[in-house]
Specification:
Layout lengths: L1 H37 L3 E3 L2 E3 L4 H16 L1 H24 L7 H8 L19 H6 L14 H19 L2 H10 L1 H11 L11 H18 L19 E8 L3 E2 H7 L4 H7 L7 E2 L2 E8 L6 H16 L3 E3 L6 H7 L4 H7 L13 E3 L7 E3 L5 E3 L2 E2 L3
Antiparallel strand pairs: 1-2, 3-6, 4-5, 7-8, 7-11, 9-10
Length: about 375
């Protein structure tokens, strides 16, 4: 009898749990439906959304429900909003553009600098490389300004302004931003309508505006949708100093961090457009921790001079038969350290005569391929 109870009781608990879950889900759904009804008229950049059309209403409700389902994501939207929205809002005001465009960045990237898509779009505003470069962003192996909120926001607003001049509608401009203006124009011509809500577009684009509208509703009235954040729970606005720096050589970011009185990660986080561990030769506009700019020039000169002095006697000339693995083994350093120190592309071979930095290693002796002992070639570098 006891063993039968052990078998039956768990099933009863599961049944009760399932029933309660269904009841709660029904209650939540009913509550959300009431919220949707209470919203009344809906607009994007001052352009009305025809929610009186059943198909439009369903598309909007779907995106809002999906957004509300992911409560963790909404909370992160809210937390990040105080950090980034002030700059986006200010930029929109200066260009006399609709405030609603700020919500596009949430729909595109959730305000994450390193967000990426399968189509190669990257950054806060999800530019693909050709479009980003067209609107003034540097995108190469060393720098990717799509990841910089300030540069990418200016590029995105320039792009939106051109799209609006082409389509004379912010709604269509948003659709074109998502799918490309040439493709949208072709669909308008083929389908014989310029009404976004009546166009059959790629499914992602059909959802895009409703995702933006969902972000707008939730962030405009978070308490109405069950999100209650105390003032201290929002992430604070970014504060920093801006410096102009000219590098006459490939310069480790750790040198900049040392001069700014901080650490490598802080410089990378403030400047997500920097790729890799080094600043390239040329001019750089960098953000550093607030209050660090005044002492930066002197500290930078001192740190750079110290770095250069450590390079003397630490450059190895690659010989025939060498590869990165054998060189790393010879000098007892991690293979990936060689890659970092010399900014190498691991898919490309090294060649005799190439110069490799072997940081912090003195001259050692080894055997040549012919069995003769020779001194490994380590040269000084200015």
């Amino acid at each position: 009898m006891k063993w039968m109870l052990f078998l039956i009781l768990p099933s009863l608990f599961l049944l009760c749990d399932h029933t309660n879950g269904a009841t709660l889900e029904s209650a939540q759904t009913a509550s959300i439906s009431a919220l949707l009804r209470s919203e009344g008229s809906l607009s994007f950049c001052g352009e009305p959304v025809p929610t009186d059309e059943q198909e439009v209403k369903e598309r909007f409700e779907k995106e809002l429900l999906l957004a509300l389902e992911n409560r963790a994501q909404v909370i992160l939207w809210l937390k990040r909003s105080r950090r980034y929205l002030p700059y986006i809002e200010k930029s929109l005001r200066e260009r006399q553009m609709p405030d609603d465009l700020k919500y596009v960045a949430f729909a595109e990237s959730a305000l994450l600098p390193h967000a990426g898509s399968s189509k190669g779009a990257v950054g806060y505003w999800q530019f693909i490389p050709p479009t980003g470069r067209k609107y003034g962003l540097t995108i190469d192996a060393r720098t990717d300004e799509r990841r910089n909120i300030y540069s990418s926001t200016q590029a995105a607003l320039r792009y939106f302004k051109e799209l609006h001049e082409t389509f004379h509608s912010w709604t269509l401009a948003a659709a074109a931003y998502n799918m490309g203006e040439d493709r949208l124009m072709a669909e308008i011509l083929e389908q014989g309508t310029d009404n976004y809500y009546h166009l059959y577009l790629p499914l992602e684009t059909q959802r895009f505006l409703f995702r933006i509208l969902s972000v707008k509703l939730i962030l405009s009235k978070p308490e109405k949708y069950g999100f209650h954040l105390a003032e201290g729970e929002y992430y604070p606005p970014a504060v920093f100093d801006v410096i102009e720096l000219y590098c006459d050589r490939e310069t480790p970011i750790r040198i900049v961090a040392e001069a700014a009185g901080t650490h490598f990660k802080a410089i990378k986080d403030l400047n997500p457009q920097i790729r890799g561990h080094y600043l390239s030769i040329g001019n750089h506009r960098l953000l550093i921790p607030k209050g660090a700019a005044a002492a930066f020039p002197g500290r930078y000169s001192e740190a750079l001079a110290k770095h250069v002095s450590t390079l003397k006697g630490s450059v190895y000339i690659v010989k025939k038969g060498d590869n990165l693995s054998t060189i790393a083994e010879r000098f007892d350093v991690p293979l990936f350290a060689l890659v970092l120190w010399n900014n190498l592309d691991v898919t490309r071979p090294i060649h005799p005569g190439d110069r490799l930095l072997i940081r912090g290693k003195s001259v050692t002796r080894g055997e040549t391929q012919e069995g003769q002992t020779e001194q490994d070639t380590l040269l000084s570098e200015d």
